[in-house]
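WARN no homologs supplied; continuing
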Amino acid sequence: MTKERASPIRTTVLPALILAVALALPFLVPQYYVQFASKVLILGVLAMALNLVVGQGGLVSLCHAAFFGLAGYVLALLSPKYDPASLLLTLPAAVIAAGAVALVIGALALRTRGVYFIMVTLAFGEMLFYLFHDADFAGGSDGAFINAKPELVIAGVRLLDLDKPLVFYFVVLAVTIGAVGLLTMLVRSPFGHALAAARDNERRARALGFPIFRIRLIAFTLSGALAGLAGYFAAIQFGFVAPQMLGWHQSAVALVMVLIGGLSTVTGPLIGALVLLGLEEVLKATFEQWKLIEGIIVIAIVLLLPNGVRQLWPMAVGEADPKPARDDKVAPSPARAPETGHA
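OK structure emitted
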């Protein structure tokens, strides 16, 4: 299948313009909107992490909120009661913990298929939810407070104070840009092509020698670690963690963001987060029954724009909207190890 070449405006000018707006935003709007933008970026990273499994891997997971909330709890548990925690200590610990739990859950859940995979991930997510809901060490159903936000201190010099909204916004923006770069590199790499090949035609990819189970497990683990990264900064922003962060409802919200933004692009879920959260802000201030109206609008978007709201750009400028690129031929790696696990 021949891939359509995207216009330079779409690939270069538009991203540069969006980045310029993001950098200038804190100096143009009140602090409330800076905090709102930080929230959009954090949940956008969560949605992009989920999309690595859903969009690129073809696997619908309902436990990514568990990784999201787990990282927040790691920060809360490692933070001193009144003093700021070390960013260099707590950030790697939170991401590694989320990735390790994703590795264990993925090793078990990926042995199932279809609706069974969805139910297994949902079950694991609910297990973690009730673990923290009923555990006294984590504050039980009341959750836990983070009284002082982490700091980056090297040789006695404070380099980052995340208690300042402006500093926090730019750190989250840098994390988001890093996540976009990492996911773009993964999707375009041989690993990403192998993951997409397993999504499109698992039997064919297996016949060509791709270690399907291993590829999906790596993707699931990386996705869980990125979800944990988002959860860490969410806990910093709100200064509080609660079991609801791990619930299936949060996973469902992230999945809606993926569907609104579009499955076939890396940044689509980030756009979906902006659309969904922006829609909530507008509807809350306008209608009493805003949840009902929000649901109707989301359903309309999914039905009318199956490739997400990103379709609106090519429709507006008269470009053909490229379909997800799926090669007709998948070449096996010249030195591919045999698969060791069940698919």
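The first strand starts at residue 144 and ends at 145.
OK
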